[in-house]
Every structure is written in C-alpha cells, then in structure tokens.
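# step 3/5: fold
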Amino acid sequence: MTGWTANDIPDQSGRTAVVTGANSGIGYITARELARRGARVVLACRDATRGKAAEERVRAEAPGADVVFAPLDLADLTSVRDFAAELTDDRLDLLINNAGVMALPQRRTVDGFEMQFGTNHLGHFALTGLLLPRLRAAGHGARVVTVSSGLHFLSTVDPRDLNMDHRYRRWIQYGRSKSANLLFTHELARRLTAEGSRIVAAAAHPGYAATNLQTTGARMEERAWAERGAEFLNRFLAQSPEEGALPSLYAATAPDVGQDDFFGPHVQLWRGSPTHSARAKWTLSDKASAGLWAASERLTGVRYG
C-alpha cells in the first residue's frame, strides 16, 4: 500500500458516508475525497456556520457532489441522539468517527464528562450505536472507521478514573481518549465478528498533520507562546491535511481492510503514505475493551443491539 494516494480510492457511487468533524482539517479532506468519488456525504459538524461553509466549499471543489451539512455536537448526547434520529438515509455505508479535541484545559461536556474523553470516545460510541441499524442495512461493505492518534502511546485508559478527576493532565488524558478509540474499535470488531456481521470496524491516525487541533487548547487559555509554537511546528514539520487524511480514506475504502486493522503514515507514525500502524499492546486487550464498553454503555445510555 506504500504510495497509495487519494487517486486510488475506488468508486463510491451509491454509497452514503457520515464524517464527523468534517468542516476542517482531515475531516474536511476525507469528506471531499469521498464526495469526489461519488459518495453521498453527510458533514456532521458542531458549528452550523462552519458546517454550511464546508458544504459550499466541497460543492465548489467537487462539482456535482452530493453533500449535506447536519448539526452534531459530540459533547452533548442529546445532540448525538437528535442527529441519529433526524438522519434521512435509511442505510449507511461508511461512518467516519473523525472529530476530536486535543490537550484542552479541563472542561466538561454538557453531560458532565471530561471533555476529551466525552467528545473523542463517548460521543462516538453513542453515535455508532445509534447508527448501527443503518450500517447493518447497508450489508456487505459497510465500515466504521474511528480516528485515533499515535499519541495513544502516552497512556491507557484508567477504568477507575475515566474522567481524570483525581489529577488532570491534558496530554495524558488526550492519550487515554485515543487509546479508548482503539479499545472501542477492538471490541466493536470482536462483537461484529461474533455475530457474523460483515460490517468492518477499523481505525486510523493521521500522523502529524497540520490542523487546528494543535492550537485550540493554547488559544482557549490565551497562551500565546504555545499557540505560536504549535503554528511554527505545523508549518515546518507537519504534513498537510491532504496527506493526513489518507489513512482514514484507506481504512474506509481499500479492499483489503480487515477487522480491527489500524492504519497510519508509514514513516515513524509521522508522515507518508498509509500502512498498517504500530499500536500499544493495551489497545488489544479483550478485558480492557470489554470493561470500557460496559462503562460506555452505562455512561451514555446507549446499548448495542
């Protein structure tokens, strides 16, 4: 797969995709490239102004694209339920769990969860469960792709302190939320296999891609030096969002993707064309994934049928 580019994406005509966080960064690129290949794409975004602007931009860059914005705030479980209830498509071929936040100052979601864990994991856990009947309706070829990070190596999930109430450390909690993404994928893949489903659950990470994730936390706390430093690194060290989106696009469309596969850039988890990525051993633990799953069902109130 080395050398794989967006030009290698198979025809997506007749397929419907939901991409969370599709208004910017790798989410926008993922949505645009799927639309270019003929998919109907739902841009699931928190901010309506940015979401509608992204819809117009995709139409301009991919003439004839079938694309629509729909509001979704992953930090609000009511919004997640509303999105799933109001989605007009009876079947769903691709769910790209892309949206995320990174290294924020300590904040809470609408439902009281730590913001990184609540947005990056719990919101997507609930969304996937609520959309699972539509994924099943698509039959063979349906996929759930959850975007993790190479920084999941920072820490595994602590089941005794999921919200990091004891001592909040922004980067460690970010790593935990990204490990949660991989544990979710592992358990979802195991359950789909056990029931004989042909839906594939896979994961991806963008490496070091230049997006607004790196600057948001610093901007929220008005740490100008940190924001400038992130902007400098984005400019001179990071790869482009177009390159960062390739692992997600590969996981969503390549014919050889299997259950619980994890893709990232081929150069040291950092940059380059997509390939199978290294992952921490703890993200392959059946015990840890089952425990997180049970806790996620309890916290979100969403149970998978």
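# step 4/5: annotate
Strands lie at 16-20, 40-45, 66-71, 94-97, 143-147, 200-204, 262-267, 271-276.
# step 5/5: archive (pending)
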